[in-house]
Every structure is written in C-alpha cells, then in structure tokens.
Amino acid sequence: MKQPRLRLVIPDFETIKLCLAGKEESTLEQAIIIAASVLAAAIVVGLAAFGAATGDGQVTAKAVESIARQPEAKNSILVSMLISVGLIESIPIIAAVIAIVLVFSNPFVK
C-alpha cells in the first residue's frame, strides 16, 4: 500500500466555514496536528537525552570521587558505574521509541 504524499492545499472560503463550524476536517488541521506531534516528540527526546547526560555526569563524578577515596575498591565501583550508566542511557532510547511510535500512529490523524 502506497503512502499518499503530503501536499499543500489552500482551502476556499466554504471549506473554512465548514471547518470552523466543525462539520469538516481540513488537510490544514491534519498538517497542524502532524507538525505539533513531531515537535512534541522532538522535545521529549531532547529532554530525555538532557536528563540522561546529566545523570551520566553525576554517576561518573561520584564514581571518580569514590575511587579517589578508596582505590582498593576500584573494580567494584567501576562495574557498578558501568551498569548504572547503561541503565541511565536506556531511558532516552525508550523515550525515542515511544515518541516515534506516537508520531507514526497518531490517533488524531485520520
């Protein structure tokens, strides 16, 4: 099944009146919904990446501080740090997948 291409449609006055009355949905409304969905997905992924980067920095800083205090526990601290960083990095990946799914299966777009 071929996907239809997006095209710019300039509605006439009657179509605008029907849209304002709530009797017809225009392609302009659909385009606005799609644009808002993409913008919201970009904001969500950006905030998730920012949060993960902040968390990674804090975990790494505390791990370096712990190794400086107890050098003999270096191996266990590094293992704990790497596991924590891996778990923290999964958050923006999950956020990106959810955002992409919501953009492509938007319930507001017919």
UniProtKB/TrEMBL annotation:
Give every V-ATPase proteolipid subunit C-like domain span.
Answer: 39-102
Q: Where is the chain membrane-spanning? A: 31-55, 76-104
Alphabetical UniProt keywords: ATP synthesis, Cell membrane, CF(0), Hydrogen ion transport, Ion transport, Lipid-binding, Membrane, Transmembrane, Transmembrane helix, Transport
User: Does the keyword Electron transport belong to this entry?
Assistant: no
A GO CC term? Answer: proton-transporting two-sector ATPase complex, proton-transporting domain
Question: What protein family is recorded?
Answer: Belongs to the ATPase C chain family.
Q: How does it sit in the membrane?
A: Multi-pass membrane protein
Name of the protein in its database record: ATP synthase subunit c
Q: What is its main location?
A: membrane
GO molecular function, a single term: lipid binding
**NCBIfam families from the xrefs?**
ATP_synt_c (TIGR01260), PRK06876.1 (NF005363)
Localisation: Cell membrane
Q: Which organism is it from?
A: Sporomusa malonica
- List, alphabetically, the SUPFAM superfamilies matched: F1F0 ATP synthase subunit C
- State which gene encodes it: atpE
Pfam families, per database record: ATP-synt_C
List, alphabetically, the InterPro entries matched: ATP_synth_csu_bac/chlpt, ATP_synth_F0_csu, ATP_synth_F0_csu_DDCD_BS, ATP_synth_F0_csu_sf, ATPase_proteolipid_c-like_dom, F/V-ATP_Csub_sf
Q: Which PROSITE patterns match?
A: ATPASE_C
Q: Look up keyword Ion transport and say if it applies.
A: yes
Sites annotated Reversibly protonated during proton transport: 89
Summary of the function given for this chain in its UniProt record = Key component of the F(0) channel; it plays a direct role in translocation across the membrane. A homomeric c-ring of between 10-14 subunits forms the central stalk rotor element with the F(1) delta and epsilon subunits.
